[in-house]
Automatic annotation (TrEMBL), chain A:
One of its GO terms (molecular function) is transmembrane transporter activity. Signal peptide: none annotated. It comes from Lactobacillus selangorensis. GO terms for biological process: amino acid transport. Keywords: Amino-acid transport, Cell membrane, Membrane, Transmembrane, Transmembrane helix, Transport. This is Glutamine ABC superfamily ATP binding cassette transporter, permease protein. Residues 15-203 form the ABC transmembrane type-1 domain. The chain crosses the membrane at residues 20-39, 60-79, 182-202. GO terms for cellular component: ATP-binding cassette (ABC) transporter complex.
UniProtKB/TrEMBL annotation, chain B:
CDD domains: TM_PBP2. This is Glutamine transporter permease. GO terms for biological process: amino acid transport. Residues 20-209 form the ABC transmembrane type-1 domain. The chain crosses the membrane at residues 20-43, 55-76, 82-99, 154-174, 186-208. One of its GO terms (molecular function) is transmembrane transporter activity. It is found in: Cell membrane. GO terms for cellular component: ATP-binding cassette (ABC) transporter complex. It is a multi-pass membrane protein.
Length: 225, 218
């Protein structure tokens, strides 16, 4: 208990970094993920291939490798990145590949008749996508996206590996300073749970509330990866 | 270019492959243990035993919502304070198993939920007891539905094993770090090879999972 009081400022600082990194990565990976999902479902073969390669590549290598790439390799050829920047960039790219899969599953579970009807009514492909298909896909995609955000917060602990001063990093410092490793990691665990547990329960609630059809189940299965 | 040729010497490659072996070994052990534990926990959570299921469900939720890195640190650095001292390999496997059991418990539970409730009713109507119906009718169908999810969980487990490099588990990433720690010129070649090895293993598995998915769907 005394650990909470004594190290409060340090833990709060770590919490801020973890939350900040996760939020930046969330926004970034939502944009990138949607972009690559649209590439994946494109009828243009080249665009489709680019989307698939991006998604398959980053889904199948560890996040830690991407983080180390930005932290160790990039400075050899270009500017040196701080641990926070390197970690957040890696998180963004890694998560975007999962989000792309989720969004693609969401779009494809919208009845193709919707797109055809919109096109037949004179909309362009982009208009139909923007005003008809994507808004319907959003509802299917929100619960799995929420789960992705929970994963994002958990994965942001890689920042500790590249000196990103996040919650996990502060936890290691406290453990080293006090020799009370057991207590320090429990305290850090509580902080992580404050962030992740309410969100994941809220997503479970949304999923239950909106539960209908198999497309959703497929999308949430993807989110569990 | 010279760096690449030198870096991929037989000795280095053998060392990397040894690391890959440890990665796969740790992942396989963990998934095997957590399949057993996870099925058990998932079944308990599904059957709604008063209090017990609620408590186990809450513990599962807590573990699922913690970073794996924290669990690794906890088992390796935290537990010795409580008198439980585990070796590097044991504590990696224990940490991975704890985390994956919670994940698999949820997969098992949603697999059972995905089996049409008519199956259970029909089995009961035909005179089977609840346990007979569960183990002979519902679970076999549920496991079939779960296979793709379990394979993708295995893929993320292989990727997550790289986190154990932090507690110095001699797996693939750690071995690569040892090699480029001796010669900085090998840094880029090691990264390329590392990425390639992880990608090949994980992509092959996801390909298997997709084939299984298609065959199950048919």
């Amino acid at each position: 208990m005394s650990m909470f009081i004594h190290f409060w400022p340090q833990l709060l600082e770590g919490l801020k970094i973890t939350l900040g990194s996760s939020l930046i990565a969330l926004v970034g990976s939502l944009i990138l993920g949607t972009l690559f999902a649209l590439l994946e479902i494109s009828h243009n073969r080249v665009l489709h291939l680019i989307g698939r390669i991006y998604v398959e590549f980053f889904r199948n290598i560890p996040l830690l490798i991407i983080a180390l790439f930005f932290y160790v390799i990039v400075p050899l050829f270009a500017a040196k990145l701080s641990g926070f920047t390197a970690g957040t960039l890696a998180l963004t790219i890694y998560t975007s590949s999962f989000i792309a899969e989720t969004v693609r599953a969401g779009i494809q579970s919208v009845d193709p008749g919707q797109m055809e009807a919109a096109r037949a009514n004179g909309m362009t492909y982009i208009q139909a996508m923007r005003y008809i298909v994507l808004p319907q896909a959003v509802k299917l995609v929100i619960p799995p996206l929420g789960n992705q955000f929970v994963n994002l917060v958990k994965n942001s602990s890689v920042l500790a590996f590249v000196a990103g001063f996040d919650l996990m990093y502060e936890g290691n410092l406290i453990a080293a300073q006090t020799f009370d490793t057991f207590g320090a990691y429990i305290v850090v665990g509580v902080f992580y749970l404050i962030l992740t547990l309410p969100l994941s329960y809220f997503m479970q609630y949304l999923e239950k509330k909106w539960n209908a059809g198999s497309g959703e189940r497929e999308a949430s299965a993807l989110a569990n990866e | 270019m010279q760096n690449f040729i030198e870096a991929y010497s037989w000795l280095n490659m053998r060392y990397l492959l040894e690391g890959l072996g440890v990665t796969l070994e740790a992942s396989l052990l963990s998934i095997a243990f957590s399949f057993v534990i996870g099925s058990f926990l998932g079944l308990i959570r599904y059957t709604r035993i008063p209090y017990v299921s609620k408590i186990i469900g809450f513990i599962i939720d807590i573990i699922r919502n913690l970073p794996l890195m924290l669990i690794l640190f906890f088992t390796y650095f935290g537990l010795p304070q409580m008198g439980v001292r585990l070796g590097v390999i044991t504590s990696s496997v224990v940490a991975l198993t704890i985390f994956e059991s919670a994940m698999l418990a949820e997969i098992v539970r949603s697999g059972i939920l995905a089996v049409d409730s008519g199956q259970m009713e029909a089995a009961r109507a035909n005179g089977m007891t609840y346990h007979q119906a569960m183990f002979r009718i519902v679970l076999p169908q549920a496991f079939k539905k779960m296979i793709p999810a379990i394979v993708s969980q295995f893929i993320s487990l292989i990727k997550d094993t790289s986190l154990a490099t932090i507690i110095l588990l001699p797996e693939l990433l750690y071995h690569a770090q040892v090699i480029y720690g001796q010669n900085v010129n090998y840094l880029v070649p090691m990264f390329v090879m590392l990425t390639l090895m992880y990608f090949i293993v994980c992509y092959a598995l996801s390909w298997v999972s997709r084939i299984l998915d298609r065959r199950m769907g048919a």
